[in-house]
Amino acid sequence: MKTKLIYLIILIALIFPTFKFFLGNKMFTFNDETQIANFHQYFKALDFGQFPPRWAPDMHYEYGSPFLSFNYQLPYYLGYLGHLLNLPLTTIFKLLLAFSLVIGAVGMFALGQTLTGSAFFSLAAAVLYTYTPYQSIDHYVRGAIGESFALSLFPWLFWALIKLTRKVTIIDTVVLGILIGLLIISHQPAALFAIPIFGLIFGLAVLVSKKINIFLAYLKSIVLGLLLSAYYWVPVILEKGYIQAGSPFNYRDQFPFIWQLIYSPWSYLGANPFSSDTFSFQIGITNLVVLAIAVIMVIISFKRKQKPSVELLIFRLLVASSFLVIGLMNIRSDFIWKTISIMQVIQFPWRLLMFTTIFTSVLFLFAVKSFRQPWSNFFALVIIIATIALNISYFKPGLIVDRGDDYYFHRFLPRAALLPGENISSEYFNHAEDYVPLPKEATRPTSLPEAKLTVQKGDAKIVIIDPNPYRYRAGVESSKASQLTFHTFAYPGWTVTVDGFSTKQTVDKVGAISFTVPSGKHQIIIAYEDTPLRLFSNIISLGSFVFITFYLLYQLVTRHATTAAGSPRSS
What's the whole-number average pLDDT of the chain? Predict the structure, then answer.
């Protein structure tokens, strides 16, 4: 235990340059600057008691969007802890990026310990994983918080899979299920590819070895992960028909060339594989060396004609999977993307660099433990030195800037931060919000409404009682029936009640909620509530979470009682 702790301290020291900047006061330029506005909307929903967060009230000129329901979740939940401490959103964002690097490195170290039993080999694998170029692309070029968390979970998933492969226990089955659930709510494109690919690697290996009990344990873990995350993925799939289809990106424009995967110049631009104005798509020199060594070892293993163990089968399948994802990043594989259209959810084929990052690091562990001493230690040392030397320069921002939350609010939200004399942010007019889904019948407006609730026909007078964006309350008095418009897009879940009775809704010319109130005095409540589908999904996830929590507590108490009963009594 002491040795492991020492190596973990060494590991944190070695990877410190990868996240050092994120601990400082300055900000940096990155591609996904809308992340700060996203944090603002998630935290606003949580502050108003909407859990899980599903509606972003300030987007599309404050007509709102179901964006929070379709976007990933986990980073924002963790970030909310920083929000409760009144930390700036820019600080929370940077701390989460740093946290993902550390968690991923520690996960790879844990995997190395399980797979090889060597703290030194584990250290080398963690360094290779953390310093792989795509990690710096996600953290310093794109600022892709969701992918960063997916990368931090990948080693832990492999760790749980390896443990379950060696010995099936209920605890390990549950742990793997929890990790799968966390991956699903961290980044849906990553989960969409990872679950089938990881499942294929490990499932095929144990089936070939006739380890049916292990295969069944894998299936139980997947089912548990799906149950725990049902509140998220069920509405994403079944309510997709309620939003307008479309993406600002065409996946066919995002296939890198093979030579770009081997080496491409470093830059902090956006992704444009068919131009020199693009960021780098390189897999990593040391990663490619590891892959080449792994290929040679696979060829040798076939020549020996020995019956392969489960772990040797996993090793072979990892090599095959590495070439599979490399092939899928090439435009010649476009027929596969067209045939299996759900793959296009990933938007950018180069995103599969996530998998070359994890696969080559795990392949290193399989390879190094097969070497004899002192060559294995020498190989690990070379990997540590070469990986850091070749890649450390990538882990720094392209441009350091002195920007606070208001800079991003002013650009991406209509009224979260205003300059003197503004009633709407001047920069927001240039923000297309093309990544924010619109409801099916909505048309994006070009200006803010006069008020949240307005009279379209009639003489109604409105008194606002509570402007809560998720449960708006107002008093209305009129001498005749009046038509009112609540300037939020109509979407399943929005309800209008007049004096406690549900009222029929229509939509105005941009798709906002309209309704009629009779003459006289009335109390109006316009609320965003869970539909039966969402409520059912929430119950599935909550029930699974409660069951697993009590089950794990029961196991801990039982183990403690068994240990105490078996310990010798003092005289």
Answer: 93
Integer angstrom CA distances of residue 450 from 375, 436, 478: 74, 23, 20
Domain membership of residue 214 (yes or no) is yes
Phi, psi for residue 345 in degrees, rounded to 5: -60, -30
Please tell me the least confidently modeled range out of 5-19, 340-354, 361-375, 551-565. 551-565
CATH number at residue 512: 2.60.40
Task: Let me know if residue 316 belongs to a domain.
Answer: yes
Kind and range of the H or E run holding 381:
helix 375-391
pLDDT digits (tens, 9 = 90+) for 10-51: 999 999 999 999 999 999 999 999 999 999 999 999 999 999
d(CA 519, CA 476): 9
Structural domain including 51 reads 2-401
- 307: helix, strand or coil: coil
pLDDT at 569 over 70: no
479 plus 360 within the same structural domain = no
**How many domains in the chain?**
2
C-alpha 439, offset from chain centre: 23
Q: Are residues 65 and 146 in the same domain?
A: yes
Cα atoms found within 13 Å of the Cα of residue 496, Cβ hemisphere only: 23
Decide: 552 and 174 in contact? Cβ < 8 Å.
yes
Same domain, 136 and 199: yes
383 with 517, same domain: the answer is no
Q: Measure the CA dihedral 484/486/490/494, to 10°.
A: -100
Q: Tell me how far apart the alpha carbons of residues 538 and 261 are, in angstroms, rounded to a whole number.
A: 42
In this model, does residue 571 exceed pLDDT 80? no
The predicted-structure confidence for 520-557, as pLDDT tens digits, reads as follows 999 999 999 999 999 999 999 999 999 999 988 888 88
Asked if the peptide bond before residue 88 counts as cis, ω within 30 degrees of 0, the response is: no
Global pTM exceeds 0.85: yes
* CA 275 to each of CA 138, 280, 433: distance values in angstroms, whole numbers, following the listed order: 20, 11, 25
